[in-house]
Amino acid sequence: MTTQHQYKDTKIFKLESGKKLRGLEIAYHTYGTLNAKKDNVIWACHALTANADVLDWWKGLFGSNALFNPEEHFIVCANVIGSPYGTINPLSTNPVTGQPYYLAFPEFTIRDIVKAHQLLARHLKVEHIKVLIGGSLGGQQALEWAISDSKSIENLILVATNAFHSPWGIAFNESQRLAISTDRTFYANKPDGGSKGLKTARSIALLSYRTYEAYNTTQLESVNEKTEGFRAASYQNYQGEKLVNRFNAYSYWYLTKAMDSHNVGRGRKSIADALGMIKSNTLVIGIENDVLFPVTEQKFLSENIRNAEFFSVNSAYGHDGFLIETDILTRVIGNFLKESVNKKIVKLHQTA
């Protein structure tokens, strides 16, 4: 059974910055049924412009007859703060003015997103998560959650993510925000403000999501005579328009800033010390030719999280490989979870 829900919290939600949000709303999907032991929860954290319908955007890994299926698991995926798919965001009504927030929306961090997830988990009476999984910005959320609440996460799966957002990643995000800010309609306080800038921002982002090889495979011309109308140019335009039709510039602006904020060492002894706080059985997966989140970042995670396992995936798709290479992910994650169960059985026999 698949159900879309809306959680509303009447209490004031205090952000890491000290600013406050009134009337927190979180859109989320659940699939399947929580069993009597409440030990079959799979919680997925989504990436930058995705939504709470994980069976839609992570097909092959999630779905009927997939590794994570509603027939045996209770799957939860919550839409993040700032995203336009039902959770409070810059186009939500500001209770003070009665108008959408737009650029008056307070900046938030990955930790604020996680804090909202944890509120939702308590609302759902979820005290134990069998598997917490996320890729990219979703992996940043999963990592922060496992650090801040290490006891409730049994298995942690981090895909194409990092311990802190790199200068390279921040530079990409800032370039996209610069593109948005050159569109003067962004400051006009209307729902479609900044749309042309958002289209350009998406075009910039695609260059960090894919690779030279991927574009050569999918966008290479079949004739030599062209001087204009290239497939690669049409692809960039198409993908930009596609995002404009389903997203908004304000949410994109704030979510890229939230990604930039990611640093598990903030307010803690060090990054390594923060990673050392994780008690979950951890699998870290990297994409070998990922331009945006290089595999060195995942190796760093695995080297600093206690007893973490590391696996690298060879994909022509670069960073987007975490969404596309689901056959490989199914095999690697499936084997990891089987080993986790076997270790748990051995540990129970040792303590009996």
UniProtKB/TrEMBL annotation:
It comes from the Bacteria. GO terms for cellular component: cytoplasm. It catalyses: L-homoserine + acetyl-CoA = O-acetyl-L-homoserine + CoA. Its main location: cytoplasm. InterPro entries: AB_hydrolase_1, AB_hydrolase_fold, HAT_MetX-like. Its EC number is 2.3.1.31. Residues 45-323 form the AB hydrolase-1 domain. Substrate binds at R202, D320. GO terms for biological process: homoserine metabolic process; methionine biosynthetic process. Keywords: Acyltransferase, Amino-acid biosynthesis, Cytoplasm, Methionine biosynthesis, Transferase. The active site is at S136, D290, H319. GO terms for molecular function: homoserine O-acetyltransferase activity. Transmembrane segments: none annotated. Pathway: Amino-acid biosynthesis; L-methionine biosynthesis via de novo pathway; O-acetyl-L-homoserine from L-homoserine: step 1/1. Transfers an acetyl group from acetyl-CoA to L-homoserine, forming acetyl-L-homoserine. Homodimer. PANTHER family: HOMOSERINE O-ACETYLTRANSFERASE. HAMAP family: MetX_acyltransf. This is Homoserine O-acetyltransferase. It comes from Pedobacter duraquae. The lineage of its organism: Bacteria, Pseudomonadati, Bacteroidota, Sphingobacteriia, Sphingobacteriales. The gene is metXA.
